[in-house]
Amino acid sequence: MFISTGINDSPTIVGKAGIPMVNAACHAAVFDVNGNLVPAGAGEPAIGIFIPSTPDVVNAGDDVTVQIKEIGLWITGAAVAAGAEVASNNAGQAITAVANAFIVGYALEAAGGPGAVIKVQITKSGYKAGGVVAPLTLAGLTDVTIANLADGDSIVYDAGAQKYINKALEFADLADVNVANLADGDAIVYDLATQSYINKALELTDLADVAIANIADGDAIVYDLATTKYVNKALELTDLADVAIANIADGDAIVYDLATTKYINKALSLDDLADVDIANPADAETLTYVLADTKWKNL
After folding, report:
1. φ, ψ (nearest 5 deg) of residue 171
2. Same domain for 49 and 99?
């Protein structure tokens, strides 16, 4: 025994919006794969028309109302004659049904061009025989605005216009990039503190193999094998490759040693001087300059 009826006499249904929509009122509606309501595409089997009181801006998940039968209002996408079979174009608007398009209903009044709102009898009369349905394109979607399309443009969402638009992407358009006060020669580096890529003028301390500490005037940058890094230090004689200092003593001089091809330290004697020639020195001898030899000699 039946205690209630499952018949719904209302000409409308309420469902969830499958995508954000702008100005969807009086446009044809279909169910998406998740059972949510979205604008119909070209020739698609629309279940009805979004009612005129649909808000101008609808967010995904919002309740929306669709008229599914009787006489409703549908915005046109082209000129339509009174009595014509009407179908959806790629923007969910009413156009004269072409072959293979789903006949949503019949125009009850004429429209001279796109953008007119006309009365339509919603009949869902099946597909019109013959022909090919125009393909759906991005530019035909109500939430997409394509202008001055260029090679390499990306489609991005513009919150201000509440539309998907085309644009040539730049560094600053990326969510993890924060470019400010850009200067000539700046590099893009990752900033752990902000978890974003930022621009900056690179310095020695920004390099991974450089360790600068307690920098002082005159410091040089040298390689430190122990740390495998370039470090700063005040250079000394012992840092030079052609200097060998050993057992340094007070008063030692730095002289070149031909045998080792290095500068070494030593305590200088008289016979280390180029103009002194001492041979077999004896007690009480003096140094005398010998003009013929141009040297000081012991006599």
Report:
1. -50, -45
2. yes
